[in-house]
Amino acid sequence: MKKDFHFTLTDRLPGTHARAGVIHTPHGDIETPAFIPVGTQATLKALVPEQLAAVGAQAMLANAYHLYLRPGSEIIDQAGGLHAFMNWEKPTFTDSGGFQVMSLGVGFKKVIDMSGDVAEKPLAKKDKLAWIDDDGVTFKSHLNGSQHRFNPEVSMKIQHELGADIIFAFDELTTLHHSYDYQVESLDRRTHPWAVRSLEAHQQLTQERADKPYQALYGVVQGANYEDLRRKSSRFLADLDFDGFGLGGALTKENIGEIVGWMSEELPEDKPRHMLGISEPDDIFDCIENGADTFDCVSPARVGRNGALYLPTGRVNITNRRFRDDFTPLNADCDCYTCQNYTRAYLHHLFKAGEMLASTLATIHNQRFIVKLVDDIRASIKDGSFFDFKQEFLATYYHKDAL
RNA sequence: UCCGACGUAGCUCAAUGGUGGAGCAAGAAGCUGUUAACUUCGAGGUUGCUGGUUCGAGUCCAGCCGUCGGAG
């Protein structure tokens, strides 16, 4: 099959790893840097695809774990793939299920933070829903407790049935709470061998399903916040025939840019780099400056549904009492449907009343805010104003006395 | 007018005579490859009023006030 995927670099920011480019997929192009909203279960919660497109989303990311459990990846295969199933014609990504190895296992019912200084009490074995070994992971469904097994081959089969344009190798997402020795063992015994197995299974499936659109496979770099491990993991994956790379796992927020920089120095220039699960504005700036091309994250959607909305002056809880009689637009300078048509008082009311429209309007705004932020960063790389834009945005965003 | 029941947090209700609690509402915080329209936290009280019994009363007794129901 003809490989219908490539990455074109168009601009670089001198003195940094930052770059702009275009990812070409069978379902269209993605101008990078770009933020990719997450629709875990083949829907971005609270939005119809037209609303997601209107927000400026160039692509969407779904999750192999959730769609495997329900409705089943074979159902989506029968439907003609993710795009046809969910009525989304633009590019799609799927995550491998690797995140659930962590979130249902060591991370079950815990917050895996990026500060690295939280000593959580160890989880009792019976409380976990996932158990990892060197071949893969056995886990219990969070839906009904039924037992399943994922390994690289299973994840690749599922992701091929789902049919996203960009898919990820099955990896082990370690946390900052794991020891250095564990991080080494995780790379050598699981994430790296699994990357090789994912690639082999992917190539086999690509041949078997030659009538389907080409799917690009990204290898996933791990190594927590250790420079030697991040470089080693990057070099290992760089030597394999991946179409791009996911930069994953445990990253200390304090030096996230530095960590991304280590990986960018080891990875090939001509392949795209995707930051898994990052969306805070300061993190986005740091990652792009150090070579990241695309991002996905549930945070803008989730915090929005819970009433936290992005403003240029920082995030606010619209449920706060002070918004009860604030009849100004959420953000007069925002071009999203919500800000163009509704007041803070109305949004406050919808949340307090528990109305579904609250989620929709909040999601539209938050997605637009982050998508546009990354779009603006892309423009600033192209015209050379990146550092001015970064300084101005972050100074305003993190000193929230203006509201 | 008489009889009866009931008065506890903003609301609905708990509390063998032994340090008055919960849910919801209201207030606030958190959320970074979604088990999340979620989670967490604090605040909120002269137990209708006045007396009495008791070591000790939201609880028992009396009166008053109020609400509801029934009878006239």
Characterize the structure shown.
This protein is of the alpha/beta class. It is 40% helix and 18% strand. The protein has helices spanning 49-54, 64-69, 73-79, 82-86, 98-103, 152-162, 180-208, 227-238, 256-266, 281-289, 299-305, 337-341, 344-352, 356-382, 386-397; strands at residues 6-12, 19-25, 28-32, 34-37, 60-63, 92-95, 130-132, 137-140, 147-150, 166-168, 216-221, 244-247, 273-276, 294-297, 308-311, 314-317. Helix 7 (180-208) packs parallel to helix 8 (227-238).
Please give a quick description of this structure.
The chain has 403 residues and is of the alpha/beta class.
Strand content: 15-25%
- Per DSSP, the total helix count is 15
Shape: globular
* Low-pLDDT runs: none
Distance between the termini: 55 Å
Mean of residue pLDDT values: 94
Helix content: 40-55%
Strand order of the largest sheet: 4-14-13-12-11-10-6-5
Tell me the total number of β-strands: 16
Radius of gyration: 21 Å
Give the class from helix and strand content and strand pairing. alpha/beta
Biggest sheet details? 8 strands, parallel
Supply database-style keywords:
403 residues; alpha/beta; 18% strand; RNA-binding
Layout of strands and helices, then pairs:
Elements: E1 6-12, E2 19-25, E3 28-32, E4 34-37, H1 49-54, E5 60-63, H2 64-69, H3 73-79, H4 82-86, E6 92-95, H5 98-103, E7 130-132, E8 137-140, E9 147-150, H6 152-162, E10 166-168, H7 180-208, E11 216-221, H8 227-238, E12 244-247, H9 256-266, E13 273-276, H10 281-289, E14 294-297, H11 299-305, E15 308-311, E16 314-317, H12 337-341, H13 344-352, H14 356-382, H15 386-397
Parallel strand pairs: 4-14, 5-6, 6-10, 10-11, 11-12, 12-13, 13-14
Antiparallel strand pairs: 1-2, 2-3, 7-8, 8-9, 15-16
Helix pairs in contact: 3-6, 6-7, 7-8, 8-9, 9-10, 10-14, 11-14, 13-14, 14-15
This protein binds one RNA strand of 72 nucleotides through residues 38, 40-41, 45-46, 61, 63, 66, 93, 95-96, 98-100, 102-104, 108-109, 111-114, 129, 141-143, 168, 171, 173, 220, 246, 248-249, 251, 253, 274-280, 283, 295-303, 305-308, 317, 319-321, 351-352, 354-356, 358-359.
